[in-house]
Amino acid sequence: MQLGLSVSDSDVSSFTPLVVLELADDTKAEAITWLLNRIRDKQQNGGAELLVNQLLFPAQDDQKPNPNVFVVGSTLQRLLNGAEDVGLFKEFQDGTMRGFTYANRESFKDFNGDGEGFLSDAECQYIIKHELDTLRAKNEEHVPGYPKLKLYPGKSVVRRLQSKGVLIQYFPLHNKEDLKRLSFSWYKKFKLSLQPLDDIRHYFGEGLALYFGFLEYFTFALVPMALIGIPYYLFDWEDYDKYVLFAVFNLVWSTVFLEVWKRCSATLAYGWGTLSRKKAFEEPRAGFHGALGFNPVTGREEPVYPSSKRQLRIYLVSVPFVLLCLYLSFYVMMVYFDMEFWAINIYNENPDIATSILLFVPSIIYAVVIEIMNLLYRFAAEFLTDWENHRLESSFQNHLVLKVLVFNFVNCFASLFYIAFVMQDMVLLRQSLATLLITSQILNQVMEAFLPYWLQRRRNKKVHKRMRRLMGDKELPLLGQVQLETEMNTYLGTFDDYLEQFLLFGYVSLFSCVYPLAAVLVVLNNITEVYSDAFKMCHVFKRPFSEPAMNIGVWQLAFETMSIIAVVTNCALIGLSPQVKAYFPESDTQLILIVVAIEHVLLAFKFILAFVIPDVPKHIQVNLAKLEFDSLEALKKRKHMLQSAQADLIMRGKNSFPQKTKDMFGIKY
Amino acid sequence: MQLGLSVSDSDVSSFTPLVVLELADDTKAEAITWLLNRIRDKQQNGGAELLVNQLLFPAQDDQKPNPNVFVVGSTLQRLLNGAEDVGLFKEFQDGTMRGFTYANRESFKDFNGDGEGFLSDAECQYIIKHELDTLRAKNEEHVPGYPKLKLYPGKSVVRRLQSKGVLIQYFPLHNKEDLKRLSFSWYKKFKLSLQPLDDIRHYFGEGLALYFGFLEYFTFALVPMALIGIPYYLFDWEDYDKYVLFAVFNLVWSTVFLEVWKRCSATLAYGWGTLSRKKAFEEPRAGFHGALGFNPVTGREEPVYPSSKRQLRIYLVSVPFVLLCLYLSFYVMMVYFDMEFWAINIYNENPDIATSILLFVPSIIYAVVIEIMNLLYRFAAEFLTDWENHRLESSFQNHLVLKVLVFNFVNCFASLFYIAFVMQDMVLLRQSLATLLITSQILNQVMEAFLPYWLQRRRNKKVHKRMRRLMGDKELPLLGQVQLETEMNTYLGTFDDYLEQFLLFGYVSLFSCVYPLAAVLVVLNNITEVYSDAFKMCHVFKRPFSEPAMNIGVWQLAFETMSIIAVVTNCALIGLSPQVKAYFPESDTQLILIVVAIEHVLLAFKFILAFVIPDVPKHIQVNLAKLEFDSLEALKKRKHMLQSAQADLIMRGKNSFPQKTKDMFGIKY
C-alpha cells in the first residue's frame, strides 16, 4: 500500500497516488470540473468516492507539458469496501479462499488492525479501475462542454470519454521499491530457480502470473523431451527411420502435458482466489457503437447493434478476407518451393561451400516473410474485428484470436505439412523445420529482448537529461516518474506471448520426431523468453492493470486442438517411416488401415483421458464444496432465524416488527 | 392439491393424504412412536412438521394386513415453505422463471388467495419426500427399540431405517381424477397428436417428462429418414451399391439431431423451472456403509469409505468381470456364426421353403440370447456397482450406466461390425440387422405392453374381488387405493427406457444405410412405445416421486458418443461400397486415404458444429442473464441500504443498532 514515491511529494498529493489519469490537453475546463466532482462525490450520490489531484509539470523549453494529468488514490476504508464490490477472494483463517466481505474482515488471514497492507498494490489499482469504470452517468444528457458527447443514464462515463478521445489513458503507477525487489528475485540473479509466481501475481495480477506460470510449466515439460532428443540427434543424424519411438513419445507427451496443466492452473488460480470468483456483469466495449435501444437483460437504454448486421460483416467481409489471406499464404509457399528447387539445382550443378550455404537461403527468406506476413495480418485482423463491432470485449477477443490463430497456423505449418505428406521428403522437412524454428526464434529474441533493451537505454538517457534539468529547481520524483511512465508503451496483453508459445508448441508436438533438437531449441528459447518477458514487463511497458484470470482461457482450447492435430500428424509420420513400412512389404493398404486404427484408438484414449482426469485436484474440490456447503448452511440458518423470530412476534400477539426496518434491510421472509 | 379420494374418508385422515409410508409389520412400537413424533414435530425442534395418520385395514380371511401403514400430508403453509427449501422455480409475473420465495409469493403467476392450487400434486409430494429425507437424527444414539440401528447427529433418519429394512417403502399416491384426465389426453384417444408433456410433467415430474419429450423428438427426427428409407428399400432391394447417399444423409442427420435436441431440452427445462435450479447438497446413498469418520466438506461425523478401496474393487473385480462378460459375448457371437454357416450349408444343399426359413433361425436365436444376456448382465452389474459402495447416488448411477452401456453395445453390435468389416458381407449384414431389430422389438413389446396389460387385468380382478368383500361393511376408497398401490411394482427409473432408445439409435445411425427400413421399424416401435410406456406409468407401476431434471444427463453423452461412432462406421461403409470402389479401380490405397481424410474432416466439422451451436436458445440465455443481473442488482441495493442505514446511525451520534437484532437476522455489514 505504501508507494515509495509519496514521501517527498506531500505538496503534490496528500495521498498515495495509485492510478494516473491523462486527459487531452485541450479538454474544456467544465468537463474536467464535472469529471473530478463525479470521481470525488459520495457513493450514495452515484460518485466513485475516490481521491484525485492534478499534477502540474514545470514548463520545459522543448515542449509544453500536458496540464491535464491527474493522480487518483483512495482511503483504506473505500478500498476495503471496493474489494467487496469487485468480489475479491482472500485467504480465510482456516486456510480456504473466501469472498472478502467488510463485515467479516477480521476473520481473514493477514488482516491486522485497520487492514493496512491487506490488499496488494495491484488489487488496490484494480479496485480503483473498477470504480472508475463503473462510474455511471446520471441525468446528464451529454458531457458538460461537449454537446456532441451524448450520455444516457447508466452509461459508463470513463468509457464514453475514452471512446471519444477526451480521456487519453489511465494506468496504474509502478511502485519502485516493490519493482526493485520483484525484478531482483525474478530475473536479476543468475542462479537457476523457479519464478516468483506469487510475487508476480502480487505486482501484475493473476492474468500475467498465469502466463508466466504456463511458460515455466511448458519449459519444464519440454525438458524430458529435449533430453531424449539430444542423443537422438547426435547418433541418428542421417538415420531417418528411427523416429517411430520418438513420435509415440511425442504423442503421449502432448496429451498428458495439457491435462496436467489444467490441474496446475486450477491449483494456482485457487491459491490466488480467482477459481471460484464470479465474473462481474460485462460492460460493452469502449469502441462499441449503435443506435440507442434497450438492453434485453438489464432493461437499460444503451446502444444496440443488430447481431444480423454483425453476422453479415463477418461472413461477407471477414471470412472472405481471411480466405484470401490464406490463399496468399499458399501462394508464397509455392514461390518458396520454386526458390528451394532452384537452389537445389544450383547446388547439384556445382556443389561447393557457397552453394551449400545457398541451400538455406530460401528457408531463411521464407521464415522472415512468414513473420512479416503474420505481423501485417495481425493489424488487419484487429481492424476487421473492431469493425465487426462486437458488444463485449470477450467476444471481440474470441473472434480476434480465432482469425489470428487460423492464419498463423497455416502460414507457419503449411509448408511443413506439404513437405511431409505431399512431397514425403524427410530430409527437406528436417532442414526446413530447423531453419524456420531458428530464424523465427532469432527474430523474436531481437524483437523482444534486444530492441526493448536498446529502447530502454535510449529512454534512460533522455530521462536522466530531463531529471538533471528539473533537479535545478526542485526534487519531484513523483512528477518525474509520472512523466516517464506516461510516455512508456502500453502492454497490449498476453496475446502475442501466448501466440508465440502456441507456435512453438506446434513445432515441437507436430514435427519434433523428425528433428529431435526442436525441443532443445524451444527450451533454450523459453529460458531467454522468461528473462526478456520479465524485463519488458518491469522496465519497457507501462504497468498493466491486474487482470483476474481463473485459467488461460481460449488458449487452453487452442493448445488442445493443436495436440489433437499432433496425434493425427504423428500417426501419419509413423505410417510414412521406412522402418514401419518394412513390416508390410507386400501391401500399403494393410499398413494404412492399421495406422488409421491406431490413430482412432489413440484419439479415443485421449478423449477418455481428458474425461477421466479431473480438471481440479481433489483437495481443491473439497475446499470448493466446503465453501458451497457453508453458504447453503448459512442461508438455511438465516431463514430459520427469521422464521422463529416471526413466530416469536406472532406468539407475543403483536406482529409489530417495524415494516420500515424490514424494507430498509431488504429482508425477505 | 385436492385428491379425489379424501372426501369420503374423513374418518381415516383429516387431511389430503399425499405419501404412503410402509413400515415392516414387526416394527417395535417405540420406534414407531419416535418416528411419528419426529415427523410431526416443529421445524425449530428439528422435526419435519408434517401431518401423518395410521391406516388400519380390516382383517381379511386370506391374509393378515400390515398394521404399520401411514399416510403423510401437510398444511399448505408448510408446503409453500418447503417449496422454498427445495429451491422450486415457478413462473413470475413477468413470464420469467424465478426461484420461489414465500416472501414474494404474491408476485408469482397463478398464486391466488392462500396459494391453493399453486403447487402441483407432484411438487407437493416431492417437497414431502425432501422433508422426510432431510429429517435428521439429533442426539439419539440409535433408533429407539433397535440398539443395533446406530444413529449419529445429522444422519438422515429415513435413509437409515430404509437401509436396515425397517422402512419398507414410501411412495406418492396416485390422484385418480388427474390420472384419468392425463391418461385420456395421453394415450386413450386414438388421434395423432403430440404428447401432453406439460401435463406429464405436472403429474410425474420433470425427469419422466423429459424422457417422453426425448422419445417424441427422436421419433419425429426419424420420420424424414423413414420416408427416404421406404423408396430405397422398395426399389433398390438387391442393389447394395446405392447406399452411399444414404450413409451421407445418416451422418449429417445423427450430428444435427443431438445438437438440436440440446436446445429443445433446454427450452423444456427452462419452461419447467429446472434449468437454472441449483442442485441440493447430495446425501450419501441409503446403502452406503463404512467406518465412522468425518466428512471433509461438511465436517460432520458420517460413514467414510476410503476411495482407494473402492478403486481396488473397481479395477480388480468389476473391470475383469466386465471383460470376462465381453469375452463371453464374443464367444456366443462366434457360435452364432457357426450356426449361420451350418444353416447356409443346409440351404445350399437343399434349397426349399423349409430351409430358407431355417436361414433366419440362427439370427432369431441369437437375438433372443442377446436379450437374455443383457438382462442377466444387468443384474450382475447392479450387484457389482452396489458392492463397489459408492457414496453418492449419482456416482453409483454413472458407474452402472457405464458398465451396462459397454456390454450392451458390444453384445448388440459386435456381430454386425464383424459381418460388415471382417466378413464384408453386406447381404448377411442386412439380413442380420433386420432379424436382430425385429426380434428385439417384438420381445420388447411383449415385455413392455402385453405383459403389463395381462398383469393389470389379473390385478384388477383381484382388487374387484377384494373391494366387493370390503364393500360389505364400509365404503373406504382410500384404504382400497392404498392397498392396491402398495402391491404395485416400483418403477425403477428411466434407465431401461433410455437404454432401449440408445440401442435403437445405434441400429439406425450405424447401419441403416444397408437396411433403410430400420428407421421405419424404429418409428413404428416408438409409436407403440409411447402408448405402452404411458400405460405402464399410469396403471402398472406405483406412482414415482417427481425427479427434477435439467437434461437427460449421462444419456446425452452416450448418444453423442454413438453419433461419433456412427460417423466412423458410415465412412467405412462408404469406403467398402462397390459404387465408390469403382472410382478407384487401380489402387485401394488412394481410396482408403480419401475416405480417412473425409472422415477426419467430418469429425472436425462435427466438433466445430457442436461448439458453434449454442446449447441454450438465445431468448432463454437472455432470460437467464436477466435473472442473474437482477439478483446482482438486488444484492448491491441491499448493501448500499445497509451502508446508508449505518451512516445514518453514526450521524445521529449513537451506533446503537441493537446487536441482538443484527445477530438474529444474520445480517453482515
Number of helices of chain A: 21
Spatial separation of the terminal alpha carbons of chain A: 42 Å
Share in helix of chain A: 55-70%
Sum up the overall morphology of chain A in one term. Answer: globular
Strand sequence of the main sheet of chain A, in spatial order?
A: 2-3-1-8
Oligomeric status: homodimer
Task: Report the uncertain regions of chain A.
Answer: 1-12, 653-669
Q: How many E-type strands of chain A?
A: 10
**Roughly what is the average pLDDT of chain A, rounded to an integer?**
83
Taking all Cα atoms into account, the compactness measure Rg of chain A is 29 Å
Determine the most extensive contact between two protein chains.
A-B, 43 and 43 residues
Q: Which percent range describes the beta-strand content of chain A? A: 5-15%
Q: Biggest sheet of chain A: strands, sense, closure? A: 4 strands, antiparallel
Query: What class would the helix/strand composition of chain A place it in?
Result: alpha+beta
Membrane topology (chains A, B): Multi-pass membrane protein
Keywords (chains A, B): Membrane, Transmembrane, Transmembrane helix
GO molecular function, one term (chains A, B): chloride channel activity
Organism (chains A, B): Sinocyclocheilus anshuiensis
